[in-house]
Amino acid sequence: MIEAGIKHDQEKVQKRRAKLGRFILATNDLELTPDQLLEYYKEQGTVERGFRFLKDKSFRVSEVYLKKESRIEALAMVMVLCLLLYSIAEWKLRTRLEEAKEAIRNQVKKKTQTPTMKWVFFLFRRITELVIEIDGKRIKKVLNLDEENIKVLKLMGEKYEKYYM
């Protein structure tokens, strides 16, 4: 039989803590509490991810040749508005997935409740609308709508469903 005990050496703990790293958060907003400041700092990653999304090659921003400052500002505004809509849609879908205790498959076929909208858009890439006119009557049909797409649409709500179903 082996017996062991634990001895708490407060002096050694204090020495180790003294060597731990620290960082400084500074602000000119004197109304913020330290906890609020830390929370805002932690949320900074979300903003950074958003700008990384805007710089993604799929946006092809590097291929836009604008010279006038007003046009560059207008393009930047449109891109930030797109990012806002993208973020709202992503938040809404993730919230609905969590509330419904549902998940969709990710790139490696594992279930996730935190998909990116970029992935969701990829899932919708094959969906097309077929319009046929026979004897003056127009018939519309949505093609390639699978179970995963339907789940996403139902979670997002009727306004989204009406365009596809």
Automatic annotation (TrEMBL):
Query: What superkingdom does the record give?
Result: Archaea
Q: Alphabetically, which GO biological process terms does the record hold?
A: DNA transposition
What Gene Ontology molecular-function terms does this entry list? DNA binding; transposase activity
InterPro entries on file:
IS1634_transpos, RNaseH-like_sf, Transposase_11
What the entry lists under Pfam families is as follows:
DDE_Tnp_1 (PF01609)
Query: Which stretches make up the Transposase IS4-like domain?
Result: 7-85
Looking up NCBIfam families in the UniProt record yields: transpos_IS1634
Q: What's the protein called, per UniProt?
A: Transposase IS4-like domain-containing protein
Q: Which organism is it from?
A: Methanosarcina acetivorans (strain ATCC 35395 / DSM 2834 / JCM 12185 / C2A)
